[in-house]
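CO-FOLDING WORKSHEET

Operator: S.A.
Ligand of interest: flavin-adenine dinucleotide
Run index: 291
Mode: holo prediction, single chain
Checklist:
[x] sequence pasted
[x] SMILES validated
[ ] output reviewed
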Amino acid sequence: MFPIENYHYATSVEDAVQHLAAYEGTKILAGGTDVLVRLHEGKSGYGHLIDINGLDELKTISMDESGTIFIGSRATFTEIITNDIISRNVPMLAQSLLTIGGPQVRNTGTMGGNICNGAVSADSACAALVYEFDLQIQGTEGERRESIHGFHTGPGRTILQQGDLLKSFVIRPENYTDFKASYIKYAMRGAMDIATIGCGAAIKMHGEEVETFKLAFTVAAPTPIRCPTAEKTMKGAVISEESLKRLADAVAADVKPRTSWRASKEFRLHIIRTLAKKVTRQAVDNQGGTC
Ligand SMILES: Cc1cc2nc3c(=O)[nH]c(=O)nc-3n(C[C@H](O)[C@H](O)[C@H](O)COP(=O)(O)OP(=O)(O)OC[C@H]3O[C@@H](n4cnc5c(N)ncnc54)[C@H](O)[C@@H]3O)c2cc1C
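OUTPUT RECEIVED:
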């Protein structure tokens, strides 16, 4: 049996926040693909659960008249992948989520859980960083909007406070309109594997020149990151072997890979350089351009 000491089935967002605030270390149970696995492993700190699976308002995916996209924190990976608003406007997000686990995990796991568990390897994190997600959070002091930038504070850690519940992700139109993007996950296996390195890029061209370029990595530093130094090298550039080589050289200044059982930091750096070029080419190809 799972060592659950206290379980509450939330009846509203306010009810969930109230119970989350009442007891230090209480965890939210969404899809459970992290929480129940940790419980099963006997990990401490998972005995007090607030189950949010009754809160359907947290599952909605919508777009308002301004073109702002809202993705409920409880939307499963499969619901996001198969959603028309997502595939038409931010297809790289669906591309990223398709790399997660297998069908069972994608049918159950949520993007809210993927970002809020603070995992440095989260496959939704690169899309969140290059599409500049905002996070709508309900806390004991009311509702607030936080940027994805700075949300992750360390491995498994985020800015969320006790009593905080993520309600939705917000993508503003200026952050996806006319951008083409791509995601590559480097892992030992083709499925059911955690990323050794994840890499995502979004690019907006002005004729042959790069107008805006955004590059993000997972497992290349203690948190998912953007790469300002590398991004600067591409501004105004024409996509070519030379500009991509400059990009691959510059990205080393933005990353801080470490050695783990999955890969040495030297091997990770090699993959980082290679993926930076490859994902940029792919993003341009998605734009119908060639290089
Ligand atoms: C077999 C397997 C394969 C996997 N493969 C991958 C993979 O390839 N890539 C990958 O990125 N992940 C992978 N995962 C990890 C996992 O599926 C994801 O991290 C998933 O997104 C977690 O979502 P969940 O809804 O199941 O979260 P839960 O387990 O319910 O919660 C996870 C954490 O997030 C918090 N949380 C959840 N929702 C909210 C909210 N709305 N507000 C605030 N906090 C919240 C919880 O308190 C908890 O700490 C895998 C897991 C398994 C079991």
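REVIEW:
Residues 287-291 have pLDDT under 50 and may be disordered.
The domain at 59-174 is CATH 3.30.465.10 (Uridine Diphospho-n-acetylenolpyruvylglucosamine Reductase; domain 3).
[x] output reviewed
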